[in-house]
């Protein structure tokens, strides 16, 4: 089974550089980048928790399950 992998889409045009996304990211996939913009440190570390997507006040982040990656099993 392929490992779950996520694609992180950041719409920098909407980002207001509040820092919440990289503050909350538990795996430090997102880190503080230049001029306080979020930077993707290593997309492979993303666990798809959606904390960044949900906390962003500007809805500038979209986490997407990569095609071909294992879907989250239904319980
Ligand atoms: S989905 Fe979770 S692990 Fe992935 S970048 Fe966002 S906060 Fe970090
Ligand atoms: S939470 Fe949203 S607005 Fe704030 S720094 Fe992250 S992407 Fe930008």
Account of the protein in words:
This protein is an alpha+beta fold. The protein has a single domain, classed as Alpha-Beta Plaits (2-Layer Sandwich). Helices cover 13% and strands 21% of the residues. The protein contains two helices and four strands, in the order βαββαβ. The strands form two sheets. It has a two-stranded antiparallel ribbon. Strands 2-3 form a two-stranded antiparallel ribbon. A hairpin with a 5-residue loop joins strand 2 and strand 3. The chain binds iron/sulfur cluster (2 copies). One iron/sulfur cluster binds next to helix 1.
Strand percentage lies at 15-25%
Reading the helices and strands in chain order gives EHEEHE
Heterogens: iron/sulfur cluster
Runs in which pLDDT lies below 50 for 5 or more consecutive residues are none
What's the architecture, going by CATH? 2-Layer Sandwich
Count of strand segments:
4
Task: State the end-to-end CA separation.
Answer: 18 Å
Helix proportion: 10-25%
Rounded to an integer, what's the Rg over CA atoms? Answer: 13 Å
Order of neighbouring strands in the sheet with most strands: 1-4
CATH class: Alpha Beta
CATH topology: Alpha-Beta Plaits
Largest sheet: 2 strands, antiparallel
CA-based shape: globular
The helix tally amounts to 2
Number of domains: 1
Helix and strand composition category: alpha+beta
């Amino acid at each position: 089974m392929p490992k779950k992998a996520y694609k992180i889409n950041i719409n920098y045009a909407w980002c207001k550089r509040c820092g919440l996304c990289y503050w909350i990211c538990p795996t430090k996939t997102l880190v503080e980048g230049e001029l306080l913009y979020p930077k993707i440190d290593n997309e492979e570390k993303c666990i798809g928790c959606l904390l960044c997507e949900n906390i962003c006040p500007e809805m500038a982040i979209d986490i997407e399950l990569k095609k071909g990656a294992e879907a989250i099993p239904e319980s």
